[in-house]
Specification:
Blueprint: E1 7-9, E2 16-21, E3 23-24, E4 27-28, E5 36-37, E6 40-42, E7 49-51, E8 71-82, E9 89-102, E10 105-109, E11 117-118, E12 124-127, E13 133-134, E14 137-140, H1 144-148
Antiparallel strand pairs: 1-2, 2-5, 3-4, 6-7, 8-9, 8-13, 8-14, 9-10, 10-11, 12-14
GO cellular component, one term: membrane
GO molecular function: metal ion binding; metalloendopeptidase activity
Protein name: Leishmanolysin-like peptidase
Length: 164
């Protein structure tokens, strides 16, 4: 969606933010795309803005997000996340989650999850209603190449040889 209220992932999956502009061929557009996602999140509780990088563990105000050194922004569907300490929920199209990569496979740990779960490319993790998420929803599994070939902070990872 191109609305400016829904939280979503930036293209490189480092940030959760809101749509800050729709550009198609250099012109503003109303198409259902959002190539420009703000890297700042403004909390509805405090009104303050914070840099919304998933790999920054000190960022605790992103609804439905588990931020840490190994966290990436993953696309979500039908997800309503608790917004801070209030009883309000925010519609989110992306959340930060911890990612583990091993032997060509991706595992994901989300906010409130008991541990890392296998997350095969093209698959999804079904969430149930919890203190963090209203009525459940889905986190979409990322491609291995998107989250396992570069560190969550943008630095280069050592070459991993698969199949040995």
């Amino acid at each position: 969606a191109s609305d400016s209220a829904t939280l979503r992932c930036s293209t490189e999956r480092h940030y959760v933010g809101r749509c800050s502009g729709n550009l198609v061929d250099g012109h503003l557009s109303t198409k259902d795309k959002c190539p420009l996602v703000s890297s700042f999140y403004t909390s509805s509780e405090s009104g303050g803005s914070v840099l919304s990088r998933c790999s920054d563990g000190s960022v605790a105000s992103l609804p439905g997000s588990l931020t840490d050194e190994g966290s990436w922004c993953l696309d979500a569907e039908s997800l309503q996340a608790k917004a801070g300490n209030s009883s309000d929920y925010a519609s989110v199209g992306g959340v930060c989650a911890q990612v583990q990569c091993a032997e060509g496979k991706v595992k994901v740990k989300y906010l409130g999850g008991s541990g890392f779960e296998p997350c095969p490319e093209g698959g999804e993790i079904q969430l149930t209603a919890s203190e963090h998420f209203k009525d459940g929803g889905k986190i979409k599994c990322p491609r291995y190449e998107e989250v396992c070939t570069v560190a969550a902070n943008g630095s280069v990872l050592p070459l991993q040889i698969i199949g040995r």
